[in-house]
Amino acid sequence: MTRPRATDSEAAPIGALDAGDLQCALALSRAASWNQNEADWRTMLALGRGWCIRSPGDASPVRLAASIVVLPYGASFAWVSMVLVAPEFRGHGFAARLLRHALAELSRAGRGAVLDATPAGRPVYAREGFVDSWSFRRYRWDPAHPVPVPPEATAAAPGLASRHASPPPACRIRPLRESDWPAIAALDLPAFGADRSPLLRRLAARLPQAAQVAERNGATVGFVLGRDGREAAQLGPLVAEDAATACALLDAALARTQGPIYLDAADAQQALLSAIAERGFAPQRPFTRMLYAMERAPGDASKVFLVAGPELG
Fold it and tell me: What is the mean pLDDT of residues 27-44?
């Protein structure tokens, strides 16, 4: 296939990305070796909006050259994600055009923007006006390729080496129930910075055995969810009042999840990071949470231990 000229790239129109583009969108994320599966794309397009540039000059009119998705969270901000360009169309400004289009749409709606950038993407977003907030890193556990753990470690889940963390005093860890959703929303809203209940409900249905709640004195003090992925299951978000509760929730979810497993853990949560290392997870790549047209990051990062994923927040 002939690579497009710069003039072709500038002329390629920006169109809506919808459910009819699912397979082409999935091909884009697969080409980037990202973990999203079809259910992830369906969720993002159902709860948000997407735009794309279709392959200029290609015989197939449905093939995608580039994509972007925004997920609105409340009235003040939206998540920007799935900024993808097919390998043969990279270097022609497609990602920048889509990003500027999305930011203009958000500006008209009076919303700021948040995204989680890889090291390669961070300088690109900085040039467009995004500024750094806080950071996290992806960790992977693979039963086929375990990493060394302390010899005194024991098993918290089948095949997963771990020093099992008991629940904190007076804290009970149990499976999520339908009646828990109001309390989960009340805990998550100040931690994340917006009501994302529709997303959380969808995630809970994806890997229901991993959905766990922590209770103390009759109050909900933490929760963890999970979902299936193309390459690995992903646990998160994990929101809790303290690190001991977060570690207990993590162990409960790990005990019910088959590997390989991804965790996107906040760099500031040192107690959880130590627990993750003890459980045999290996660090993968870092991410930087970046803000556009916002004075501060939404929510309370001290209560966020695992994020839902860079595409979801």
Answer: 97
**Backbone phi, then psi, for 237, in 5-degree steps?**
-75, 160
Whether 265 and 200 map to the same domain: the answer is yes
Token duo for residue 191: 């931690």
The single residue listed with the structure tokens 């000229």 is 5
Write the pLDDT tens digit of every residue in 169-180.
789 999 999 999
pTM (2 d.p.): 0.91
Domain count, the chain: 2
Structure tokens of 136? 């996290």
- Residue range(s) defining the domain that contains residue 251: 136-286+294-306
Residues 97 and 141 in one domain: no
Give percent of the chain above pLDDT 90: 84
| The pLDDT value given to residue 151 | 41
- Residues, the chain: 313
Same structural domain for residues 75 and 142?
Answer: no
Residue whose C-alpha is closest to residue 313's, from 134, 142, 128, 184: 134
